[in-house]
Structures are given as C-alpha cells and as structure tokens.
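Hello,

Our lab assistant flagged a job as stuck in the queue for most of the afternoon. It eventually completed. Since we weren't sure the result was trustworthy after the delay, we are filing this so someone can double-check. Below is the sequence as submitted and the structure that was eventually returned. Let us know if re-running is recommended.
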Amino acid sequence: MNWFYSKDGEPIGPHDTEYIRKIYISNEIDSATLMWQEGMAEWTRLDQLSIFADIRNSTPPPLPKESRENSENKGAPKRFAKTNEYSDQNVNDEYNVKSKEIIIHYQGGPWSRYFARMFDISVFSFVFAILFLNLSYWIMSSKDYEVLMNASEYTFGILVVPGGFLINSVVITIFGNSPGKLFFGLRAVPVNSSTKFGFQGNLIREIRVWFYGMALALPILSIVTMFLNYREVSLGRPARYDVGFANMKAEPIGKIRRAMGMIVTGVLLLGLIAQNVVENQKAAETSRPKEWTNPATGVSTTIPGGWVYQEAENKNKRLFQFDYSNGLKGTIIGFETVGRNIGLSEYADAVKEANSEAVLIHDERKHIVISGVQLLRMDGQFKSEKWHVTYIMFKKEEKFWRIIIIDTTGQVKEDIESDSMFVALFRSI
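-- returned structure --
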C-alpha cells in the first residue's frame, strides 16, 4: 500500500506504510501532514486515517514551533528553507489547498502534458516520416512506392504516427526522458517505484498512449480520447493510459518556462501546418494542366496535370525535361541536326550506341505512323535499375527528334498514342 505525503507544499512518494510510520516517529512528518493514496478522493490529514491510529497514540507530540523551524531550516536544502517570504502561514496555506490541485501538481497539469506530448510526437513523427520515405524508396518495388506516394495525407499520417511513438520510446530509454516532457518538468515512472522503465516498458507505455490517449490517431476518435484523458487529469486522477501502469511526476517549473514551452510547441505545430498547406497548394498547382511552348519550334501545347518542366542542363538547349510529381516518371524531348543522308534507322543505331553504357536497348524495333509521320520505337532498361525506357524517334525537316519516356515502376506502355504526355510533346513539334 503506497502513500504520498505533503511536505513543503510538494507531494512526496510513493512510500509504503512502514516507511510512513518511521518518518512519523522520527518527527519528519506530524499528525497534520496530508496523506493520499490511489483510490482516495482527496488528501486527508494523517490523524484522520485509522491505519495510523496506533503510532499517533504511542509517539510524543510535535516539537514547539520555534524548535521545528530551526531544525527544518538547519538541514533543509536552500530552496526549501523557510524565510519571511515562505513562512509557516504560507506552508499552512499550501497544505490547505484543494486535494485536486495537489494531485495535479504532482502528476502535471493536463495542458503541460498535452503540449509536451504534441512536441514529442510532432518532432519524432516528422523524423520517422523522412526515414520511412527514404527507406521505402530503396526496399519497396516501384509500384508499391507509387501507391505509397499517392496515399492521402490522412492515411500517411496514420502510418507515421506509430513510428513517432517508437522513436520516442527509444529516446526515453537512451536519455531517460523525452525532450517535451523534460522541458515541461515531467517524467513517467512505473507504479512500482522500486523499478525503472526499460525499452520494453517505455514502448508499452507509448503504445498505451497511442491507443488509449490518441485512438490510433484516427480523426474525431482521437479528439474524444484526448478529452476523456483531459478530464481524468483535471480531476486529479491518472490518465487512462497510465492507470495501474505508470505515474507522471512533475517538477515545479516557472511560468516563463511553461509559457516558452507552449509557444515553441505552438510555433512548431503551426510550422508543420503551414508546410502542409504550402505542399497542398503546390500539389494543386501541379495537378492542373498548363501551357508550354517548345523553344525549338515556338509551338505551344497543353501539358497534362502532374508534370513539371525542368530546365535540363544542356548548352545548346536541345533537351527539354519533364518530371512527374511523384518522382516515378520522366519524359525528355530533344532534337539534333544531322546530315541529309542519315536515315531514321542509322540515327536509331547512333542513339543506341551513345546510350549503351547506361541502357540495355532491345534489338526489336517498331515502326509507327502518327498524323502521317513515320516514327521508330525502341524499348530498353537501365542497367543499374529496373527502370523501363522507351525511345520514340522521327525526322522532321532537317531535325531528328526523340522523345524518351522513363518509368521507374517498370511498366511498359504498349500503345504509345494513349500516353497523354507523349501526345502533348509530339504536338509541339
């Protein structure tokens, strides 16, 4: 049976009953000391608890006020020493505050805990999202990665939040606390004060917070669970995810420090929201079709939504590159002026030879006619990647044109006329 007792306006504990008896007999506490344990509705004076009736009747009364003051001041740490500013009257006033306020002081107010949690989850979920995307790019197939990149932001958020909790548990295990709780003077400890949380304990608590505190980060449900936990903590009870598992210890921090923590967390959240808004606006802009004028011909065409023009690095401005917004597709259009006696097949041979170190081009070639123009098609694959590449070449006037279609998912577009990007670029020539 663990007890908390009030000393110098702060809850101390938990301690077992035998320990309370010893410090009572040694006059470290007296009959007026407020006591509390889990299950009690409010703090109660020791002399009103029947379990301590035997020691109350067998011990002498407390020392006179002056002697007690001298004894407490002599051995007390400086920050607890009584001065004119922290008199016995102030101590008594502190003891007489409502039990709910004392409990909240011990386990931390709901807003301090909320801002500490939001800081940790925002930072670590963002870190996990970066790690997750980079790792997924290398270990997932291009098709699966495309599905991931096309997922809604809500779906992606539900995926990365558990990773934020995982990183948080690792950080707490290594450093003893999370940055958010450290800043707000909070620390989660096991209910059994004689033990410490290892990685397993920290991970289990983070999972409990994720499930009971945030409802798996599901919209609306997470708001309901946060409200329920806010009510529990406001009433001086443990949060639902900590019942029977952990206690939250809170160190006194100044108003300035608490305000700074809330401001920093608020700025962080607003920054993430602003970044999300900007990215959504950029995605909306990219998704709209736009006009593009071919610099070589001066002919305008409508580029399908999702494609972004990139300034290719070429001195003669003979290559024009477009990338798809998810980074999985690319299209390049370019031209060259060669001698009149060079045919389309000879030009295709030259292209194959020029790209032989990077691309394995198949021997099979297809002849296509679009709008009366004779085209030659070659397909291949990058040697270092499984990216599929399609070359479409044709001659118009004195120029040989080539449109190169790159698909990192490995998909092959059999009917090139159904490729909206190819059709748009072909119309600009």
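-- support follow-up --
The delay was a queue issue, not a problem with the job. The result is valid. The first helix runs from residue 17 to 25. Residues 2-97 form a domain with the Dna Ligase; domain 1 fold (CATH 3.30.1490).
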